[in-house]
Amino acid sequence: MEIKRTANAGVLLKLENATILLDGVCREVFPYLCTPSSLQEELLLAKPDVVAFTHHHKDHFDLVFSLKYSEKYGRKVMGTEQMAQLYPDTVSFRQCITGENWKLSAFQTRHIGKGGLTTDHLSYIVEADRCVWFMGDASPVQMKMLCACPSPDVLIVPYAYLVTPSAIQTVENLHPEQIVLVHMPLKEQDPDGLWQMIAPARERLADQLIIPELGQTITV
Q: Is the pLDDT of residue 147 over 90?
């Protein structure tokens, strides 16, 4: 399986029989990066089998790309019920999609912080040759809700999962082989000091953790 970071908090998963784009195109919300137009065109031409978004915040979702994908391939992108109501011609709320030797399942989770009060949010689990948990902006405590699901080989999570001892412990308790950290700004554009905040976790989880740059592909 290949994982390519294509957005602030999103990736393109290349499975043996499918490609799945998760939060894979976004707009810029400083200090977080947008998906460059050249990469958007590359992703559109790649014809992903599934395009899915965890929620409607623009650092995770791009409506223009979603419209282009829907119009070009006659497929709606996956999203929350809230998104399906806002963009009924473009977004479909579906809980599961299956293909040849793979399955994508959506789970209702709570957005971290105050956003959880007003933001409809999903996390996704991909079951293929490897099992991937894609948490989006879900609160770290939401991983406990997924304990009945297949254990993750790969966790794809934002910075919140590596900044507090309790969150780090929750991650460790799942025993993932690989932790892919996204939703990180450039080191030189880090007003909240996130890189410094995750430094203890980077040392503690050095054998498991990777922080891909935008456009970088890793193999798991």
A: no
pTM above 0.90, yes or no: yes
Find residue 217's DSSP bridge partners. 4
Distance between CA 2 and CA 100 in Å, rounded? 17
Do 160 and 167 contact (CB within 8 A), yes or no? yes
